[in-house]
Amino acid sequence: MHHSAITGQRLVAIVLLGCVLFNYPVLSLFSKPGALFGIPLLYLYIFVVWASLIALTAYVIERLD
């Protein structure tokens, strides 16, 4: 299989992972009152997942085999 096809499949998997992580059942786990370092849990979760998906995408695209 070509490198570009594998990269494309990995990017599709990252998009699907993002859809799952930003879907209601998972978000409801963090929509509770409380804060960590003064940041509400839901906001912190959304930011961490968003940053992680960006980092994972950059890793997949820039990876040299």
Topology, element by element:
Elements: H1 3-21, H2 24-29, E1 35-36, E2 39-40, H3 41-62
Question: Can you describe this structure?
Answer:
This protein is mainly alpha-helical and 65 residues long. The chain has one domain. The protein is built from three helices and two strands. The protein has a two-stranded antiparallel sheet with strand order 1-2. α1 runs antiparallel to α3. The longest helix is centred in the C-terminal third of the chain and has 22 residues.
Tags for this entry?
mainly alpha
Element-by-element helix/strand order: HHEEH
Radius of gyration, in angstroms, nearest whole number: 15 Å
| Helical residues, percent | over 70%
List the total number of helices: 3
Proportion of residues in β-strands: 5-15%
The count of DSSP E runs of length 2 or more, i.e. the number of strands, is 2
**pLDDT averaged residue by residue:** 93
Gross geometry: elongated
**Major sheet attributes:** 2 strands, antiparallel
The neighbouring-strand order within the major sheet is: 1-2
Structural class of the helices, strands and pairings? mainly alpha
How many domains would you count in the coordinates?
1
Terminal-residue CA separation: 13 Å
Low-pLDDT stretches: none
